[in-house]
């Protein structure tokens, strides 16, 4: 009897793990295994076209990266890339969400339209913006020339001083609807009574925004920012399509540099070490995100 | 019909279908072939249909792979090789041969070629160029292009100039044509820039031999090339990132007076400009030396192929007489067969003549494991830095030297 009770208790205790097992196995296969493989490659000299020369070199790839000028350029560009894009997307997304939270007759349509950039594939966005910026045929130069802001076309993507900012603008345009939709969802959960009470107390619309709206959506904004930082830090498709990292190293970010070393130079060992360093940097952000999510679950 | 009877009949039909299928499949070899055409709308469907009609035991699975300045295409081949998911055969270039050799990825064709009737229809020089350093023949020549200079006869005539034959002529013409929003030369500084850099820098005295990029002559030639943008400003400011599409579109739109490409873009150029476009070999250097890019294209069979005999039948079909002519039409390039070249009328004569006249100075890129990296990363990034003032042009040459010789 006692044995039966004990085995029943064990079965009950094991049941949740049984349910989790398929998901854990899939996660291990598609995430954990590639991560471990990348870590393993990063400790080796591994050139794809020379598989016979796969040999352990310890941390030499990491040491090479620290003395590689392009690594530091790419790291700085990555910092500018992530902070600039996420900040601008947040501000634009917040503004759009506040507008779309107002009552106007075509609000439904506006809410549907605003999602379009987010729904477009990155490659299409890259090509579209490349032609917008084109030196000879681009609409941006055409408009600026017509309104007299410039006297000659500007090579937006061919000048190191403007190339990164131009690609960032394309990505800001693509990603701001994510913030809009997320923040809009948050705004709709703010009780209307709070605004009524604030109004009775004589709070101006700005004060209401500052002391009612912002604290109410702070949680959701923080989660969205953390998620977006991870996504933007990893993204390289739009850069690859628009400039391929050029001119020179002007639009090289860390993931793009790792990609180029892996797929053009076929230096998988070195590229793995670059990827791993990016992962280490992002782990801090991931840790913050997971902590937030865990906190929300506990609540 | 009763339900039970229907089920029995349906089951029997399904079984007979399943039983019949493997018999067909077993008898039919499938050959996977990777290809790329400059015009992605072109398809080899009619060639495949003709081959399959002549060879009912072989099915061809032709898969178009994006070219992406060459980098995308070659990346996919090497990635597929490592993953063990390579096709049976693919279009390849000489500059990949070393890497393939290091991976032992290619099947020698000598045994097949010995009994192939079409061998004599391809010039012995072409076989010689395509022979591997180990003396074996891994490549089946398919078609080729030679880089030459497109120019606007009308604009040059207005300026009282002849098509440039020397670097000096070229600079004079580029300066004369640069006015009123038009630039003399549509330089390619983005993907594929080696075919614009090579004629002036390698033609001016640089070489891929050890130390060949850092001789005084080589450095001077490279400085001269970079100065076209930095000092003389005869190229569009967008040149550092302009690639194939941009240089062709700018030339077609009349924004540039000269451009360097091959016969593959002739149809587009003529479509936009008619008689106002012609071509000559790229100009020669100060000492009369010259270099232009020989854009070879061959087919090769991968060692992993399980249907090597069937695969050879397909690639030899593509390099035979009239099939090769059809294939060259699809690729927009020139046929490799002697019989095909004799009656070639697809491109206007002046472009074929310019290609032929360029052959004496035409060379492939070096057969070196570093060549794809040089083409895809080292040259574009460093040339762009030099063109935008972020690097001394001499450092660009040192970077190229280091890539090949450490």
Unreliable residue stretches of chain A: none
Q: Give start-end ranges of low-pLDDT stretches of chain B.
A: 9-25
Query: How many distinct helices of chain B?
Result: 18
Shape of chain B: globular
Radius of gyration of chain B: 24 Å
Radius of gyration of chain A using CA atoms only: 25 Å
The main β sheet of chain B shows up as: 7 strands, mixed
Structural class of chain A: mainly alpha
List its traits:
heterodimer, A: 299 residues, mainly alpha, MetI-like fold, two-stranded antiparallel ribbon, B: 406 residues, alpha/beta, D-Maltodextrin-Binding Protein, domain 2, four-stranded mixed β-sheet
Structure description:
The complex is a heterodimer of chains A (299) and B (406). Chain A is mainly alpha-helical. Chain A has 13 helices and 2 strands. Chain A has one domain: MetI-like (MetI-like fold, Orthogonal Bundle), CATH 1.10.3720.10. Helices cover 75% and strands 1% of the residues of chain A. In chain A, helix 1 packs antiparallel against helix 13 and helix 6 crosses helix 8. Chain A is flat, with a radius of gyration of 25 Å. The relative contact order of chain A is 0.13. With 406 residues, chain B is of the alpha/beta class. Chain B folds into 2 domains: 192 residues, D-Maltodextrin-Binding Protein, domain 2, CATH 3.40.190.10; 165 residues, 3-Layer(aba) Sandwich (D-Maltodextrin-Binding Protein, domain 2), CATH 3.40.190. Chain B is 47% helix and 14% strand. In chain B, helix 17 packs antiparallel against helix 18. The longest helix of chain B is centred in the N-terminal third of the chain and has 25 residues. The N and C termini of chain B lie far apart (81 Å). The chains are: A mainly alpha (299), B alpha/beta (406). The interface between A and B is medium-sized, with 29 and 37 residues.
């Amino acid at each position: 009897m006692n044995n039966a009770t004990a085995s029943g208790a064990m079965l009950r205790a094991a049941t949740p793990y049984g349910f989790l097992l398929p998901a854990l196995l899939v996660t291990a296969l598609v995430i954990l295994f590639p991560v471990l493989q990348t870590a393993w490659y990063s400790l080796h000299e591994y050139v794809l076209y020379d598989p016979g020369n796969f040999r352990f070199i310890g941390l030499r790839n990491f040491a090479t990266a620290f003395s590689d000028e392009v690594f530091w350029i790419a790291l700085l560009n990555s910092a500018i890339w992530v902070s600039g894009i996420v900040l601008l997307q947040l501000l634009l997304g917040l503004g759009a969400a506040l507008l779309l939270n107002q009552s106007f007759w075509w609000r439904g349509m506006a809410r549907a339209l605003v999602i379009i950039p987010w729904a477009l594939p990155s490659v299409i966005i890259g090509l579209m913006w490349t032609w917008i910026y084109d030196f000879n045929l681009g609409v941006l130069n055409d408009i600026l020339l017509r309104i007299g802001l410039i006297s000659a076309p500007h090579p937006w993507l061919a000048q190191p001083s403007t190339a990164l900012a131009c690609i960032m603008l394309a990505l800001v345009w693509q990603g701001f609807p994510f913030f809009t939709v997320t923040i809009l969802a948050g705004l709709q959960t703010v009780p209307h009574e709070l605004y009524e009470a604030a109004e009775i107390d004589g709070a101006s619309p700005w004060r209401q925004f500052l002391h009612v709206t912002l604290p109410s959506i702070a949680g959701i904004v923080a989660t969205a920012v953390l998620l977006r930082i991870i996504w933007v830090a990893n993204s390289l498709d739009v850069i690859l399509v628009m400039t391929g990292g050029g001119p020179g190293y002007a639009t090289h970010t860390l993931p793009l540099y790792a990609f180029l070393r892996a797929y053009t130079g076929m230096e998988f060992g070195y590229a793995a070490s670059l990827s791993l360093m990016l992962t280490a940097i992002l782990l801090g952000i991931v840790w913050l995100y997971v902590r937030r999510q865990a906190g929300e679950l506990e609540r | 019909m009763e339900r039970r009877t229907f089920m029995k009949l349906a089951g029997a039909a399904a079984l007979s279908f399943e039983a019949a299928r493997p018999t067909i499949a077993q008898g039919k070899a499938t050959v996977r072939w990777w290809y790329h055409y400059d015009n992605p709308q072109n398809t080899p469907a009619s060639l495949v249909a003709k081959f399959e009609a002549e060879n009912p035991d072989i099915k061809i699975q032709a898969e178009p792979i994006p070219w992406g300045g060459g980098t995308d295409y070659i990346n996919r081949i090497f990635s597929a090789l490592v993953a063990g998911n390579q096709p049976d055969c693919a279009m390849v270039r000489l500059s990949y041969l070393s890497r393939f050799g290091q991976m032992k990825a290619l099947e020698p064709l000598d045994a097949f070629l010995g009994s192939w009737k079409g061998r004599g229809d391809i010039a012995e020089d072409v076989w010689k160029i395509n022979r591997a350093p180990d003396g074996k023949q891994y490549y089946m020549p398919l078609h080729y292009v030679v880089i030459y200079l497109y120019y606007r006869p009308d604009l040059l005539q207005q300026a009282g100039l002849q098509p440039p034959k020397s670097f000096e002529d070229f600079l004079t013409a580029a300066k004369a044509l640069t006015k009123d929003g038009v630039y003399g030369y549509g330089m390619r500084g983005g993907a594929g820039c080696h075919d614009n850099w090579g004629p002036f820098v390698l033609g001016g005295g640089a070489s891929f031999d050890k130390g060949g990029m850092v001789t005084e002559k080589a450095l001077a030639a490279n400085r001269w090339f970079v100065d076209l943008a930095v000092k003389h400003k005869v190229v569009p400011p967008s040149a550092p990132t302009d690639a194939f599409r941009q240089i062709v579109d700018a030339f077609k739109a009349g924004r540039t007076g000269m451009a360097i490409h091959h016969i593959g873009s002739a149809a587009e150029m003529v479509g936009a400009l008619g008689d106002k476009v012609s071509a000559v070999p790229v100009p020669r250097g100060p000492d009369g030396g010259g270099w232009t890019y020989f854009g070879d294209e061959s087919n090769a069979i991968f060692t992993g192929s399980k249907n090597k005999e069937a695969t050879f039948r397909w690639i030899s079909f593509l390099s035979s007489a009239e099939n090769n002519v059809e294939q060259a039409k699809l690729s927009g390039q020139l046929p490799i067969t002697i019989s095909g070249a004799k009656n070639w009328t697809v491109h206007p004569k002046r472009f074929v003549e310019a290609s032929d006249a360029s052959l004496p100075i035409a060379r492939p890129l070096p057969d070196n494991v570093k060549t794809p990296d040089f083409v895809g990363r080292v040259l574009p990034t460093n040339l762009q830095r030099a063109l935008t003032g972020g690097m001394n042009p001499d450092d660009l040459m040192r970077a190229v030297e280091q890539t090949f010789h450490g």
